[in-house]
Amino acid sequence: MIHGGVRIDPERAHWTMWGEIDGAVQKRVETQVADHLRRTAGEPLTVDLGQVTFIDSGGLRLLYTAVESKPTPPVLVDASSRILDLLRITGVDRLFVLGD
C-alpha cells in the first residue's frame, strides 16, 4: 500500500508532496524527480508540503536533490511547524525559501 508520494506537475517546476515522505517514496520517485529537475532546469521550483503528514531522511534527500539541481533555492510552501523544525534541526532550512 502506498502511504505517500510526489505529484510532479508536467507543465511547470512544481511538486506536491503528500502523505508519508520516507525512503520508500524516495526510491519510488527519484528517477521521475531527476527527470523533472532536468526538464525544468532554469525554472525556480516550488514544493507544496501542505499534505505531508511525515517526512524522514528519504524526504529530506528528495528536497536536497532539488537544491543541488537548481540555480535558485526551492520555495517550500505550506510547510507544517513539524517539517520546519526538522529542516532547522538538520541545518538545511537555509537552503530553501519558505513561502506561504
From TrEMBL:
SUPFAM superfamilies, alphabetized: SpoIIaa-like
Domain of life from the UniProt record: Bacteria
Start and end residues of each STAS domain: 19-100
InterPro entries assigned: MlaB-like_STAS, STAS_dom, STAS_dom_sf
Protein name: Anti-sigma B factor antagonist
Organism expressing this protein natively: Isoptericola halotolerans
